[in-house]
């Protein structure tokens, strides 16, 4: 099949009482599936005997069921169509319900024989345990907590060795034969939410009696000419799509970088990080047009604006594009929506139909071999769960509620989260691939209360683009927007925004509609609750006024397709199908992630302070207060190791790590350091964090970090404190050229010690080739390392530690030494660090080449 279509199932005039009486049985059946309370009012009544207010409610349902294509209950359904020689539909319309899934067999098992697991996100604190629990009454997730007690400690210990727990094993925890007492205790435990049933959430899903999902079997054919017009449009419309980023994602990425830098973090570690779980609106990431008032530039009171006269043609290069449109007459296209990079936005739960699932899968773009798409398992309100139902198009599913319970589950124990190239990246350790979450339904993220589920939803939708008229403020906020076209194709009908504050009453609204020559009928309302209204009829004007007083602001559109469709029933009633043209675009290119700087477990022997420094306070703090504080602490305490690094961000930080012996000493020393830093006059705030060693960067083959931590310590000592033995002042006080020469000579000697001169020459040559050629020429002129360093720290100072890595494999050396060089530059150059590091690398490259060839031609 070539396209999807959605169509209303009411094929008579919704305001004609004779037609209503004729179809009364069908109408009651449709309302029963949509509103049980309304159905109870009319179940044993005829339409004429109902009150005016009830009749009005029925008219509203019928208006939506006549003109709105959004599938809901018996009012509208979904079908498939093909391109052909002409526009036609098979009549009469034939449709049926898409079958619901069968219950899982263990759904009906009694509670006492069901197996249970610990609740998701369980975290043990000093006096409590916290976990995520699902509240059946409120239908949402929340953080719950219980005070520690002997039973909870027994349970935690039990689940360290076992995956599930049933009542029979639970009884073995106690030396009592009072089964009724144990049953009561077991039920209280289940009620607390600390345990969830194995197989969650599938076993908790109930068949929501929300309505039918209707599959229309009748085939529709559209002419090849329509297809050609759409293809031409897509080949020209590229400049009208803009990248967007949700406020949620933007805030989360900022928080994540501050908290974890370039690390890959287990998803389980994020379950209790409350400070970033906030819901945000979509905000722009591109400003290329946003500082202009397009309304003033492009239109005033025009009736129509052809955007092809305003924007240059450009091919659309999205991963996926869907265009929802109606036909006017037999040839003209009226676009109602354009969706970017969300291939399942329209198929959704209708993928439970095998044909529709196949159609959706055929329209998916290719991805690189280093990545894999995966479904997202969600569990929210019964209505949301109904919307989320689908037949998974992929092999794997992301399970955000704990460790995966099936072989095809990717649980929070397996998935790591990091940032690469400003994108959030999910990585599966068992598959050794990047995981691309795919949302296979249209659920709004604001309906997701489970925090990790919401985060994964956002990751799956981070490559968002929007059609400019749906996003730019000039289009969105203007009280009037003309009909937008592209060489004859209507991209958006004429649009007005009306506000209840502008009208004293319904009659004032009627005056405005007449004087402003607002088309009649019109489309009014919000998203899937819109109504087609003939405002010249009193009842339908009432509906418009009700919408306006309820919502305060209503968007209204013209609807030139009304009574102008090429499709009709056998009784000559117009049909208004909405067509979904789905087109896969360029393949998603996700380079293989070769290096994971993973977080595993914290080393709690270390103090880790993140020191937020006042503006212009970095250098003053490094030159005097911090060295003085450290010297004092060294005299007062037995500091084994300490080191610092500088973190550049919107608010610069100095990060200080200190190794301690005992917890009591750690708490005392941490408090003293924080107090002294705050009293320095240059510090805004001091935060304490957990120290997660960077094993992937700095550990030896046996996973030992001690050597690298010792090198960090020695470098930090000489950079901030100098060296008494060599009569050397702190390196941070040296001039720039001397600092550069010292680093070059130190790491040249380290490489010589490792006997890998040629290998590192080739490695750094590759890095230098990545520097723009103009900058390379400047580097070649300015960087001429001397073989002697003034007031230098000799290599012997570091030899005891670097000698421990000298015999490591080339793979390990190529990982450890460049990372140590990077951190040495970080400590030695508080400002313009990246520039100085490039100069050091170029100087080291020259030094290595000179040692082999006597001289080295510049690149």
From TrEMBL:
InterPro entries attached to this UniProt entry: Lant_deHydtase_N, Thiopep_bacteriocin_synth_dom
Domain Lantibiotic dehydratase N-terminal residues, every copy: 26-86, 347-543
Record-linked Pfam families: Lant_dehydr_C, Lant_dehydr_N
Domain Thiopeptide-type bacteriocin biosynthesis: 606-846
Name of the molecule in the record: Thiopeptide-type bacteriocin biosynthesis domain-containing protein
């Amino acid at each position: 099949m070539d396209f999807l279509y959605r169509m209303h199932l009411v094929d008579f005039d919704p305001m004609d009482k004779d037609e209503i009486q004729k179809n009364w049985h069908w109408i009651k059946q449709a309302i029963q599936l949509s509103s049980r309370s309304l159905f109870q009012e009319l179940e044993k009544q005829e339409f004429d005997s109902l009150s005016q207010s009830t009749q009005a409610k029925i008219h509203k349902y019928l208006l939506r069921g006549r003109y709105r294509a959004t599938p809901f209950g018996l009012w509208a359904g979904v079908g498939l169509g093909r391109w052909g020689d002409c526009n036609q539909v098979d009549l009469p319309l034939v449709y049926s319900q898409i079958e619901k899934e069968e219950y899982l067999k263990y759904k009906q098992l009694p509670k006492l024989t069901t197996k249970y697991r610990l609740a998701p996100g369980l975290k043990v604190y000093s006096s409590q345990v916290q976990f995520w629990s699902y509240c059946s009454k409120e239908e949402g997730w929340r953080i719950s907590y219980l005070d520690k007690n002997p039973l909870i400690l027994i349970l935690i210990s039990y689940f360290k060795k076992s995956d599930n727990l049933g009542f029979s094993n639970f009884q073995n925890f106690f030396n009592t034969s009072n089964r009724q007492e144990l049953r009561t205790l077991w039920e209280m435990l289940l009620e607390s939410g600390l345990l969830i049933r194995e197989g969650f959430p599938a076993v908790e899903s109930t068949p929501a009696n929300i309505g039918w999902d209707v599959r229309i079997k009748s085939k529709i054919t559209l002419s090849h000419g329509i297809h050609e017009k759409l293809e031409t449009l897509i080949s020209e419309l590229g400049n009208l799509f803009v990248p967007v980023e949700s406020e949620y994602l933007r805030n989360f990425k900022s928080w994540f970088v501050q908290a974890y830098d370039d690390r890959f973090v287990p998803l389980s570690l994020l379950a209790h990080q409350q400070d970033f779980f906030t819901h945000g609106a979509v905000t722009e990431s591109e400003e290329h047009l946003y500082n202009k008032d397009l309304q003033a530039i492009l239109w005033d009171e025009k009736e129509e604006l052809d955007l092809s006269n305003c924007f240059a043609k450009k091919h659309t290069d999205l991963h996926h594009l869907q265009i929802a449109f109606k036909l006017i007459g037999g040839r003209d296209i009226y676009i109602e929506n354009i969706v970017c990079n969300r291939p399942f936005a329209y198929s959704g739960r209708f993928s439970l139909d095998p044909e529709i699932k196949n159609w959706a899968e055929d329209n998916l773009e290719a991805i690189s071999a280093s990545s894999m798409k995966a479904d997202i398992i969600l569990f929210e309100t019964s209505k949301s769960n109904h919307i989320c139902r689908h037949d998974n198009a992929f092999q794997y599913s992301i399970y955000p509620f704990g460790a995966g319970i099936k072989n095809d589950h990717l649980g929070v124990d397996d998935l790591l989260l990091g940032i690469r190239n400003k994108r959030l990246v999910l990585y599966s350790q068992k598959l050794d691939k990047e995981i691309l979450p795919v949302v296979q339904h249209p659920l709004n993220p604001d309906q997701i209360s489970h925090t990790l589920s919401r985060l994964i939803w956002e990751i799956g939708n981070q490559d968002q683009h929007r059609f400019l008229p749906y996003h730019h403020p000039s289009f969105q906020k203007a009280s009037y927007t003309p009909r937008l076209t592209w060489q004859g194709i209507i991209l958006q009908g004429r649009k007005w925004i009306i506000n209840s504050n502008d009208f004293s009453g319904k009659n004032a609204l009627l005056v405005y509609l007449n004087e402003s020559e607002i088309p009649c009928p019109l489309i009014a309302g919000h998203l899937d609750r819109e109504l087609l209204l003939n405002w010249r009829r009193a009842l339908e004007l009432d509906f418009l006024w009700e919408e306006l007083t309820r919502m305060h602001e209503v968007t209204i559109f013209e609807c030139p397709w009304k009574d102008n469709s090429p499709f009709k029933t056998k009784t000559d009633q117009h049909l208004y199908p909405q067509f979904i043209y789905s087109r896969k675009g360029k393949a998603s290119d996700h380079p293989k992630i070769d290096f994971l700087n993973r977080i595993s477990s914290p080393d709690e022997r270390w103090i880790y302070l993140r020191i937020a420094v006042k503006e212009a306070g970095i250098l003053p703090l490094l030159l005097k207060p911090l060295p003085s504080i450290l010297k004092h602490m060294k005299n007062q305490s037995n500091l084994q190791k300490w080191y610092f690094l500088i973190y550049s961000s919107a608010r610069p930080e100095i990060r200080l790590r200190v190794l301690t012996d005992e917890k009591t000493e750690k708490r005392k020393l941490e408090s003293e350091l924080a107090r002294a830093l705050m009293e320095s006059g240059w510090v805004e705030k001091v935060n304490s964090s957990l120290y997660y060693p960077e094993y992937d960067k700095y550990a030896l083959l046996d996973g030992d970090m001690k050597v690298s931590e010792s090198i960090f310590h020695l470098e930090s000592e000489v950079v901030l404190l100098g060296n008494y033995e060599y009569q050397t002042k702190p390196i941070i006080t040296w001039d720039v050229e001397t600092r550069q020469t010292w680093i070059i000579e130190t790491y040249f000697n380290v490489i010589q010690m490792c006997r890998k001169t040629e290998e590192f020459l080739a490695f750094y040559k590759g890095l230098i080739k990545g520097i723009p050629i103009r900058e390379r020429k400047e580097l070649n002129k300015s960087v001429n390392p001397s073989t002697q360093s003034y007031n230098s720290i000799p290599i012997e100072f570091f030899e005891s530690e670097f000698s421990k890595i000298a015999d490591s494999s080339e793979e390990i050396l190529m990982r450890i030494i460049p990372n140590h060089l990077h951190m040495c530059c970080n400590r030695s150059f508080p400002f313009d660090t990246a520039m100085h590091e490039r100069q050091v690398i170029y100087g080291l490259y020259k030094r290595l080449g000179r040692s082999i060839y006597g001289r080295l031609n510049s690149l």
